[in-house]
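Marked as duplicate of an earlier ticket. Keeping the data here for the record.
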Amino acid sequence: MTPERDDGSGAAASGERPLIAAAFDALPAQVAVVDSEGVIRTTNRAWREFGAANDLGGGVDMVGENYLSVCDASDDETATEAAAGIRSVIDGERSSFSLEYPCHSPDERRWFLMRAIALPEYDDPHALVMHVDITDRKEAELRVEANNETLSTVANVLSHDLRNPLNVAMARAELLGETPGDADAVAEHAASIGGSLERMNDIVDDALVLARGSDAADTEHVDLGTVARAAWTNVETGSATLDVLDEVALVADASLLAQLFENLFRNAVEHAGDGRISVGATLDGFFVADDGPGVAPADREQVFDAGYSTNGAGGNTGMGLAIVRKIADVHGWSVRLTDAQTPTDGATRGARFEVAGVELDR
């Protein structure tokens, strides 16, 4: 059966039938007509060709099969949603229904738009169901989304991580103006300002690496303790102390690793205050722990979300730990937050960030 236009007497004009059939088959979308029970009454060429190309089994035209039953039998939530939408059209609850869904094959990523449209020309309720390939549009949307994420990453890193070396440089510049006659002090302040400017330059480069992903990371064998101690000097730590518990080499981008430590140290100082912060090795990575109040289990995954902060009133932007996770991702590492355990009494408290999947050189 092919859709026909009623001429008013209940039958389609015979001369129009071949034209309607040809137009139906020429549609690039995959189109089927289903009756009130969801049984497929007819399909077009695109539908049949898709069935044959994707080895759907049974008759490629699916005529006589109950389309709604096929959807109901699927474990896919999209199929269930599609069946409900088609039924709402057949039952007259709405004139049309649309649903976008992925339909990836082993060889390619694909997305489709399913539309169900009521066919009032039939005496009994019928619906036209068509699937339109929207892969090109979806790929374009994903590219735009990826570009926006890249811009957001660069902006977040620059706005967040440049603040610390900038604050250090400004403070040293102020001290430099207060001690113009002290040659040793001038040299010390000038060296600190130069180091801060170099760190700012590195952070700009790191932002571009984070935007490009793992292909841009310049990994090498670096010493965990050396990088951690250098990062500590770039953070305003007050009276907090750093303990490096293990000396071990690992494969990482040294500058990005320093940035990871800087953000973890800054986070620890903001939340744990003037306590003890420790860095050590694990079987497949390293950790940064503090002896502060810790983080509630319910909040431990959220802390890595961009913009999430438990200290917003204190000026925390909520970007530091999001950057930590991004740096871990670029290296192919994972990072999680758990409890820290003090070595003296074994009591569980504080926050411990564990980075795993690291190539260690023991």
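See parent ticket for discussion. The chain is about 40% helix and 20% strand.
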